[in-house]
Structures are given as structure tokens and as C-alpha cells.
Specification:
Elements (H helix, E strand, L loop, with lengths): L16 H12 L3 H15 L8 H16 L16 H32 L9 H28 L3 H8 L3 H14 L1 H19 L4 H5 L1 H16 L19
Helix pairs in contact: 1-8, 1-10, 2-3, 3-4, 3-6, 4-5, 4-7, 5-7, 5-8, 6-7, 8-10
Length: 248
């Protein structure tokens, strides 16, 4: 029987949000426009097919380019599509990302509209209590959604980086990402809020700015990953299948 696989260790409360943003910018600024192209195309391609089927490989390709840059290795635009080397594991991670959202969102959505139906005015006479109940139900619905999205966003922050850098399976990457994310919850939440603020500022510039800040937000997450896990030792090698046997 083979020895059990040991998951990488992680540091608790290691993420420094402001440092992540600054270090992220420093990481990509010398190849800024290349990273703009990589991240924008990655997001667009990942959004083409429903259920995020292509999103996982694109995320892996983006982090592959970022980690190669951290190691001082040259990158090219084609590195984005090397994320398909991790297609199976990244797809599993993406589907696991969607499950908790669907499990909570769909029933909550149904309950919300059932409640809305019963609160409708009868005989054309509006009921102030029903109106108050509607707004209360609406607020509760979105509160539940916001809490869920925050938990999922924090918990899955490191899933794709772990698949790329540590060659973890999709399931193990998600499990470890959730553990490390919860151990750095408030720090990661702060970083994600800063990323959101940077993206919001980008939106103010006719939406084009949102694409221009994408490399910074991804690089900030890559930096947070390094703070929590460190980078795997040795020169990066793509996740390719073994070569076929040769015969003399």
C-alpha cells in the first residue's frame, strides 16, 4: 500500500492585503500589457461556455504565467492556454465552486418568490404589512447571498493556484484552499475588498478600466498564495503526461 499523500502546510493569518496589492503591481508592471492580454482573454474565453467549463483552465493559465514570473522565468501569451494541461482538475474545482452557490441560491430563490406571491395585495388593496414583509424578505434573501458569496470567495481563493503550483487534484486543492482560506479569513476578506475597490475604480473609467486592473487583482491573489503556502521548490514544469516509452 502506498503512503498517504501529505497536503502542503500553510501559514495562518499570513496575508497582508495592502502588501499583496503593491507586490502584485510590482510583479506585473514590467510586462503589464502582456498580462492585460492574458487576463482579459482568459476571462472572455472562460465565459464563453456555460458552467465555467473553460474558466478553470483559463484561471490555471493565468496563475501559471504569474508563478513563472515570480520564479524569474520568461512568459509568453501562449502560457494562458497551457492551463488546459490542468483541464480535469480545474473543471472539478470549478464545479465544486458552483455547488454551494446553487444549493443555497436555488431554494432561496424559490422561497423568495413564494413569499412574494403570498404578500401580493388582495382585491387591489395594498397591505402595508405585506409591503414591509416583502422588503424584509428581500433584505434577508440578499443578506444570505452576500454571506454565502463571501464564504465561497474566501474559501476558494487558492484552489486554482494550488492545482498549478502544487499539482494537487481538484478535490484536494479545494479542500486545502478552504482550510487555508478560513485560517486567513479576515486577511483574505480585506484583500478581496481591496481588489473589489480597485475594480470599482476601474469601472468608473467607462468599464475599460476594469479590464486594465485585472492583472493587479490576479497578481495580488498570487502574492497572497505565496504568503500562505510559499512557492513549490524547483523550476516550474508544466503538468504534462509522461512521454511514451521508447524501444531500442
Amino acid at each position: 500500500m502506498s503512503a498517504p499523500f501529505d497536503l502542503p502546510e500553510f501559514r495562518r493569518k499570513a496575508v497582508e492585503p495592502v502588501v499583496c496589492i503593491k507586490a502584485g503591481w510590482n510583479l506585473i508592471r514590467n510586462q503589464y500589457w502582456l498580462f492585460v492580454g492574458i487576463t482579459v482573454v482568459g476571462i472572455l474565453v472562460g465565459s464563453v461556455v456555460p458552467f465555467g467549463i473553460l474558466l478553470g483552465p483559463m484561471m490555471c493559465g493565468i496563475y501559471l504565467a504569474l508563478f513563472k514570473t515570480k520564479r524569474g522565468q520568461p512568459i509568453e501569451f501562449g502560457d494562458l492556454f497551457k492551463g488546459f494541461d490542468y483541464f480535469g482538475d480545474s473543471l472539478i474545482a470549478t464545479l465544486l465552486h458552483l455547488v454551494p452557490i446553487l444549493v443555497v441560491f436555488v431554494p432561496s430563490y424559490i422561497v423568495f418568490y413564494i413569499g412574494l406571491f403570498f404578500m401580493m395585495p388582495r382585491n387591489g388593496e395594498p397591505d402595508p404589512r405585506a409591503l414591509f414583509g416583502f422588503f424584509g424578505l428581500f433584505a434577508l434573501f440578499w443578506l444570505v447571498m452576500m454571506v454565502l458569496l463571501i464564504l465561497v470567495s474566501v474559501g476558494f481563493t487558492f484552489a486554482y493556484p494550488l492545482i498549478v503550483d502544487r499539482r494537487l487534484s481538484g478535490l484536494n486543492a479545494v479542500k486545502l484552499s478552504i482550510k487555508a482560506g478560513m485560517a486567513n479569513f479576515w486577511q483574505l476578506l480585506g484583500m478581496l475588498l481591496l481588489n473589489g475597490l480597485v475594480s470599482f475604480v476601474g469601472l468608473l473609467f467607462c468599464y475599460v478600466g476594469a479590464f486594465l486592473v485585472l492583472p493587479i487583482t490576479f497578481a495580488a491573489i498570487a502574492t497572497a498564495y505565496e504568503q500562505v503556502f510559499g512557492l513549490a521548490e524547483g523550476e516550474f514544469q508544466p503538468n504534462l503526461p509522461p512521454p511514451p516509452p521508447t524501444f531500442a
